[in-house]
Request: fold
Amino acid sequence: MTVSVEGEKVMLVPYMRDHVPKYHLWMQNYSLLQATGSEPLTLDEEYHMQLSWTQDPLKHTFIVLDKDLIVGDFLHGDPHVEAMVGDVNIYMNDLDDSRIAEIEIMIAEQNSRRKGLAKETVLLMMAFAVKNFGIYKFRAKIKESNEASRSLFQKLGFAQTSYSEIFNEVSFFFQFYTSSDPLDYLQLLLARLTKSYMGRKV
Reply:
């Protein structure tokens, strides 16, 4: 599925090969590795990882573009590397419940933090997952030291469910109930409708 999702402040675009060098540069940062619980990869390994994301039906990732940084007009299929500030992912690999997804968010560029981009990105990704995959429950696993991310998910209505001393990780959970329309709820939080642009395979 090749879709770009637009919000007020961000544009979510498919993770393309052209994004890999900048993404790889981010992931050489020790603080980001610690915050995301990631292991450093070589550039070649990062290219293989990007390809695997495009081929795995149980995962979906978007690169987050800061709309203030896009040069010229936005074009679906153009990587707009100049505006890359982070990524957002969902994993749909719960064997017992196909309507649950784990969600992750990273705003890697410091100058694009504290602008509300992460909040909007998470809500857009949740709306995308509900609409396209029928997801009604979300999990988030966050390093205990990542106070900003923990605060973000709590503000969005996620409840803390557990803590792993082994991984120093806090788990959060969010569930929509059948009596309410999840997209209406998310749109209220976003205070605007989302727009999607279907395009060619990239």
